[in-house]
Amino acid sequence: MSSNEPRWTQTWLGGLRSAGVDLGYPGQRLGLPEEGSGSVSGWGRRIAALVIDWMICTWAITQLLLGISTAEQPWVPAIVFAVQYVVLVGFLGQTFGHRLAGIRVAAMDGGDPRLFPVLVRTVLLVLALPALIFDRDHRGLHDRVSNTVVVRM
């Protein structure tokens, strides 16, 4: 084995990129631009949007508006989160957190997602595990099942 060839461990420890395989940028296979509006959202924006939405649901809505203690009923914020997610993404294409982070949920044809796929996406998102299984285009299992992608605005 010459010094220019990657070691066999590089392909499974570091992934294909470390072995010199060019996979392109996230969204290239989907026909999306590499940067700017319409490009696949990065993890930072998605996590920021999720944190903002979760804070709104747990603190502002559940505790202030509904007066429910999350210590006594810890499942209520998840239900509030799911309801606001279905309503806002289903009708506007984005939640408050998405808006503040500059991202939106788009159907694979570029338009707003339909209500039933948003409902399925929300159920999988609330379960958390499907959102942690993702592909090289930053699409979680919940995105793939609902045929959506999170893009920058």
From TrEMBL:
Bilayer topology term: Multi-pass membrane protein
Keywords annotated in UniProt: Cell membrane, Membrane, Transmembrane, Transmembrane helix
Domain of life from the UniProt record: Bacteria
The keyword Transmembrane is annotated on this UniProt entry: yes
Coiled coil location: none
Subcellular location as annotated: Cell membrane
Domain RDD: 41-147
Keyword set includes Membrane: yes
InterPro entries: Pra-immunoreactive (IPR051791), RDD (IPR010432), UCP021697 (IPR016795)
Transmembrane segments: 47-68, 75-95, 115-134
Protein name: RDD family protein
Species of the source: Nonomuraea harbinensis
